[in-house]
Amino acid sequence: MFTLDQLRCFVAVAENLHFGRAAEELSMTQPPLSRQIQKLEKSLGTELVRRTHRKVELTAAGATFLDQARLVLSHATRAGESAVQASRGLRGRLSLGYTAAAGLTLLGPILTLAKERMPDVTVELHQMVTSRQLEALEDGRINAGLGRLSSASEDFRADLIHTEGLVLAAPTGHELLSGRHLHREDVAGHPLIMHSADGARYFYDLVVRNFSIDHSDVSHSLSQITTMISLVAAGHGIALVPESATKLNFPGVGYRQFDDLRRDIVELQLITSADNATPTASRLKELLDAAPAEWAG
Q1: Count of domains in the chain?
Q2: DSSP 151
Q3: Which of 69, 74, 81, 100 has a C-alpha 20 to 30 A away from that of 10?
């Protein structure tokens, strides 16, 4: 079977119709160039180049083979370029997990950024809570996740990409939505729609750390913020949700910030495998790191 080097030698000779000029173009001497052509012809079992003391010309087989040789070299070049681009995360597939709350804030801008800066990468989206994202990262079903880790992990890398506040969600007309101030202690005694300790561990821990929760006040425990808001709208209680949930615009629900709670208490992270991040996931992280602070709008 012939080699790519033999094809390059043949194309150079065919285009120059001169062994000396072809050898100079390839930065080699004529004897090894002649040997490469001979090996190619032996491999094919036919003469490609006819050489006399006066001129060099292609045989009929050589003229036909020239187009195919150029095509093979072109494909080989593109294959090499594609491999390099893939190693840099500029080509391939990015399977991205995201939470429902991330879908309300960062997902759109991230997709826009990826489309502009990683146009040859196919992005696949998978909505799932953070715990499911970690499972999917472990078995390779996703390459990265937009989620929230409650604590550090040796198996995963979590890079902070966005912060927001935690706000009160209450039925329209609820007493906590009026008044001059709202403090964390004011939620006590009201039916609370709580985050699940299993399915929404990050928010569960966040609420427990920052509020004095009487679990007898908890009417329901859920993992999906959209479902929590729908229950608030139906009058089943109040909820403590990320500020981005206000974009849901559920009728019958009002929102309010707490006067004694930091406005950056809720964190969103880009989660990847600690020791086996794919090139596309690494490239996305680089883009997010380099983006201006206001990139998410």
Answers
A1: 3
A2: S
A3: 81
